[in-house]
Amino acid sequence: MKKIINKPENIVKEELEGVAVAHPDLVKVHYDPHFVVRVDAPIKGKVGIISGGGSGHEPMHGGFVGMGMLDAACPGAVFTSPTPDQMLEATKAVNGGAGVLHIVKNYTGDIMNFEMAADLARGEGIEVSSVVIDDDVAVKDSLYTAGRRGVGSTVLAEKVCGAAAEQHKSLKEVTDVCVKVKNWGRSMGMALTSCTVPHVGKPTFDLPENEMEIGIGIHGEPGRQRLPLKSADEIVEMLMEPIISDIPYKSGEQVLLFVNSMGGTPLLELYVAYRKAHEIASKHGLKVVRNLIGPYITSLEMAGISITMLKMDDELLKLWDAPVKTPGLRWGI
Amino acid sequence: MKKIINKPENIVKEELEGVAVAHPDLVKVHYDPHFVVRVDAPIKGKVGIISGGGSGHEPMHGGFVGMGMLDAACPGAVFTSPTPDQMLEATKAVNGGAGVLHIVKNYTGDIMNFEMAADLARGEGIEVSSVVIDDDVAVKDSLYTAGRRGVGSTVLAEKVCGAAAEQHKSLKEVTDVCVKVKNWGRSMGMALTSCTVPHVGKPTFDLPENEMEIGIGIHGEPGRQRLPLKSADEIVEMLMEPIISDIPYKSGEQVLLFVNSMGGTPLLELYVAYRKAHEIASKHGLKVVRNLIGPYITSLEMAGISITMLKMDDELLKLWDAPVKTPGLRWGI
User: Which chain A residue's Cα is nearest to B13?
Assistant: First the structure.
């Protein structure tokens, strides 16, 4: 296992220590239970927004804590759901009296633990709403998941909901924005290589030198099919077709196109893929009005990409363009 | 070779096509000869800033074209110097009458071709100055290089020189800022894996499963030594010690600490490394006042990191904090 780590059991704690010393102007790190929280939380009268999940997907979620995005993020162990006490403590820490939204990716453990935390928080008088993101069109039901997995749309939901909360929209309004992203976003991913979970120490799966896996999950869960390695253009077609045909997006609509690295694929290849994805979207009459290109929801060092497309309306455009200041996304301030 | 590409010979052109459709608000792409240029170039009365080099190091340099950073970037083929005609055309395209600065990494081909382009541009009446960045403390002379290689400080130089030019400083003043970064920045890198140059199709070097290479260059040039794989803390010590002892930075000084991914190493590991690098800098009495953490000067999909430290004074701090709006770095606007 080739990684720049110390003991596998300390990786998340040490990463959080790195985040804490790197970004003291933006976030605080709370240990035992672990969560990353905005330095100015709680903000009176503002809806608090929390997400979380297993570590190994950085910058999601801890890198998206800050002005205009998340109020707190709860990192579990690598590829392991955070615990209800993390989510409960984070919920209390960001409660400014206007309620708290939990943005949850559709994995069985995440859902169970966020539900438990929400119940406990309600018991303490905090209004909590939850939205489950399930945007991965690759598979119905999967390892760890009933229904579709939650992937790239989560990043976009965190951005636009964060902007809505920053404008002091109500919990109902911020939740509605999140539901819109849940309904309008679709994703699909593929892998060239497996990742290696640090405490396992060997690759999650074997993928021969001339093969790829289409429809892979962000924890290396099985996809739709293994195929001989194809060209970038063919790979992008295999990801875009199921996305576009799923909603279906209508010709003339505006979309945000997000080409994401699974961790080990560099920007050079992402732009080659973006070129084709943009071309395919345009051929379907879709107008790509915003984009995001880079490693934002990763799967450790896995080589591969995912593509997310989100239908945009005027509300989402304004929220996307609003200022954001986090370690992982920053503009306008 | 597992990459998301089409034909290796088209990779740079297709990447540039991706950049062009992704960022039409920020940059234009000129083909034959290839260069990426600010959409609003030339800007009358502003010093133009150009850099360039082989492709494969994205987002450097093309991703750093835009307001507050570069006016143009010239991408060569992968790991191959751009040609003088690229640099000449880019120089002419960004000439707003106040002169043009060439920021050059210390590789023999880059230097020769930038010098030729500068001579040709001067022949056309454009004032050109050049600064060669040679910040890699790992080795004296190397494959492709006489003297030290130019690496991470280049990114920092592009940011602060871009800010100085944006304030309509003179060519002499912007050049002086670049020389300051050249003098005050030091870097060192290491690799866990080789990268594969697309048109070669096989790894540049072999590195057994339990070994790493310390002092590697960004083209896979040999480093100082091969060693059994060490812990993150030990690796960071091996990079920080030569950096700190080289200048030497004095206790009490302010520094920018830049932990960079070589391409295949994900953010999770960068923060583990940053934690230790920050601790070591602090133990030496250095005050880390700014940082940069992520993949900014990469070596295709190579797994590994580099660390750059730059001494900061009030001038550099103000220039670093100034607004920037490029595909790869963006804040303040």
Answer: A272
The per-residue pLDDT for B285 is 96
Reply yes or no on whether B219 is catalytic. Answer: yes
Specify which residues A132 forms β-bridges with.
A104
Please report, as a single letter, which amino acid is at residue B36: V
CA–CA separation, B215 and A247 (whole Å): 50
Is 0.90 surpassed by the pTM of this model? yes
Rounded Cα distance between A14 and A198, Å, is 13
The one catalytic residue in B23, B34, B57, B102 is B57
Residue B205 to chain A, least CA–CA distance (Å): 16
ipTM: 0.97
Instruction: Looking at the complex, report in whole angstroms how far the Cα of residue B128 sits from the nearest Cα belonging to chain A.
Output: 30
The neighbouring-strand residues paired with B105 are B133
| Separation of alpha carbons A248 and A323, rounded Å | 31
Strand order in the sheet with A35-38: A27-30, A35-38, A72-78, A48-55, A100-105, A128-133
Residues 6+ apart with CB under 8 A from B32: none
Tell me the two tokens of residue A30: 């709370």
The DSSP symbol for B202 reads: S
Nearest of A141, A156, A236 to residue A189 by alpha carbon: A236
Q: What is the spatial distance between Cα A314 and Cα A279, in angstroms, rounded to a whole number?
A: 23
Of A21, A209, A267, the CB nearest to B275: A21
Q: What is the 3-state secondary structure (H, E, C) of chain A?
A: CCCCCCCHHHHHHHHHHHHHHHCCCCEEEECCCCEEEECCCCCCCCCEEEEEEEECCCCCCHHHECECCECEEEEEEECCCCCHHHHHHHHHHHCCCCCEEEEEECCHHHHHHHHHHHHHHHHCCCCEEEEEECCECCCCCECCECCCCCCCHHHHHHHHHHHHHHCCCCHHHHHHHHHHHHHHEEEEEEECCCCECCCCCCECCCCCCCEEEECCCCCCCCCCEEEECCCHHHHHHHHHHHHHHHCCCCCCCEEEEEEEECCCCCHHHHHHHHHHHHHHHHHCCCEEEEEEEECCCCECECCEEEEEEEEECHHHHHHHHCCEECCCCEECC
* Cα–Cα dist B117/B51, whole Å: 12
Q: pLDDT digit string (tens) for B259-290?
A: 999 999 999 999 999 999 999 999 999 999 99
Selection from A116, A110, A114, A86 nearest residue A101 by Cα: A114
Contact B193 A21 (CB under 8 A): no
| The CATH number of the domain covering residues in A185-322 | 3.30.1180.20
pLDDT block averages, 10 residues each, chain B of length 333: 97 98 98 98 98 98 98 98 98 98 97 98 98 95 87 98 98 98 98 97 94 96 93 98 90 97 98 98 97 98 98 98 98 88
* β-strands B27-30, A128-133 pairing: unpaired
Residue B286 carries which side chain, given as an amino acid letter? L
Phi, psi of A196 (to 5 degrees): -120, 120
Pick from A19, A257, A271 the residue to mutate for testing the B interface (most B CBs within 10 Å): A271
Return the bridge partners of A68, or none: none
pLDDT above 80 for A260: yes
Q: What span, in angstroms and rounded, lies between the C-alpha atoms of A288 and A257?
A: 6
Q: Where are the domains of chain A?
A: 10-184, 185-322
CB-CB under 8 Å, B272 with A18: yes
Q: What is the CATH number of domain A10-184?
A: 3.40.50.10440
